[in-house]
Design a protein that fits this description.
The protein is α+β, with helices and mostly antiparallel strands. It is 29% helix and 30% strand. It contains seven helices and eleven strands. Strands 1, 2, 3, 4, 5, 6, 7 and 8 form an eight-stranded mixed beta sheet that branches. It is elongated, with a radius of gyration of 20 Å. The N and C termini lie far apart (51 Å).
Length: 251
C-alpha cells in the first residue's frame, strides 16, 4: 500500500503545494470520434482522468506540462486552464476509501484537495499513452463510451468539453487535433464530434476556404471507397491572424 503524505510527492522527497492538484482532460480526434485519455487504477475496474500534484518550484502551467508529457510522451502540447474545482466536499470520500484502500492509505489522502482543470488538444497519432505509478493502463476512450469515473472526474470532463465548445471559434483546435494533412470531411467531422451535432457540409467548406486558414494540396487521400478527396494543410500564420481578428464564425 502506498502512503500519500500531504507535503511529499510519490516520486520522493519533493516538496508539494499542500492540497493543490491538477486534473488534465486530454482530447484527441480519430476517425469520426472525439476521444479522451483515461487511466485504469491498479487492481481495479475503475478509471480516472490523468492528474498530479504541483511542486513548490513549479508554476501551474509547468506542472500541467510535466503531467501531460508523462502521460502522452509529447512536450509540445496545446493546453488551456479552464476551471478550478474547490468544493469542500467534491466527492464521496467513503466510497473512494473502499475502492482504493489497497493502493493508498485513505487516512493520508488529501483532506481538502483543490484541483485546477486543464484541457489539452493532441494529435492522436503522435501519442504513446503511459500509465502513472497508481495505474495499470492508460488509453483512449470515445466520449460516448466513457464509464463512471472516480472522484468528480465526470464533472471535470463535462466542464472541459463545455469550455472547448465555447472556445471553438477562438482557439487553433484543428491545428492541434488534426494530422498535418487532412481532408475537408476530416475537418468537418472533427467539429461535429466536438459539438455533438451535424454541420451543413457546403456551408462549412465555403466558410473555411473563405477564411484562408487552409491550403489545398496537389494530393488526394488514398484508400477511400469513393472519389478521393483532396488533402489540405493549415496555414499556421493565417490561422493565428484569423483567430486574433475575431475567430472562425462558421457554425
Amino acid at each position: 500500500m502506498l502512503e500519500v503524505d500531504e507535503n511529499k510527492s510519490l516520486e520522493g522527497n519533493v516538496e508539494l503545494v499542500p492540497q493543490l492538484t491538477l486534473d488534465c482532460v486530454i482530447f484527441g480526434f480519430h476517425g469520426s470520434s472525439l476521444k479522451v485519455l483515461l487511466l485504469k487504477w491498479k487492481g481495479t475496474e475503475y478509471y480516472s482522468l490523468p492528474g498530479g500534484t504541483v511542486k513548490q518550484e513549479e508554476s501551474l502551467d509547468d506542472a500541467a506540462i510535466r503531467v501531460l508529457k508523462e502521460r502522452t510522451g509529447l512536450d509540445k502540447i496545446f493546453l488551456r486552464q479552464f476551471y478550478t474545482f474547490g468544493k469542500v466536499e467534491r466527492y464521496d470520500r467513503e466510497s473512494i476509501r473502499k475502492k482504493l484502500a489497497h493502493l493508498v492509505n485513505p487516512d493520508l489522502w488529501y483532506k481538502r484537495p483543490i484541483s485546477v482543470g486543464y484541457y489539452a488538444l493532441v494529435d492522436f497519432e503522435e501519442v504513446f499513452p503511459n500509465p502513472d505509478l497508481l495505474s495499470e493502463s492508460c488509453g483512449w476512450w470515445d466520449l460516448s463510451d466513457v464509464p463512471e469515473l472516480l472522484f468528480d472526474h465526470n464533472e471535470i470532463l463535462e466542464k472541459a468539453l463545455h469550455a472547448l465548445r465555447l472556445e471553438l471559434s477562438f482557439q487553433p483546435v484543428g491545428l492541434n487535433l488534426l494530422p498535418e494533412k487532412f481532408t475537408m470531411p476530416d475537418m468537418m467531422r472533427m467539429y461535429e464530434a466536438i459539438l455533438g451535432k451535424k454541420i451543413d457540409p457546403r456551408n462549412f467548406q465555403k466558410k473555411i476556404l473563405k477564411s484562408g486558414i487552409v491550403i489545398k494540396l496537389d494530393e488526394v487521400k488514398k484508400g477511400v471507397a469513393h472519389k478521393s478527396p483532396f488533402l489540405y494543410k493549415f496555414d499556421a500564420n493565417k490561422y493565428e491572424e484569423v483567430l486574433k481578428e475575431g475567430g472562425l464564425f462558421f457554425i
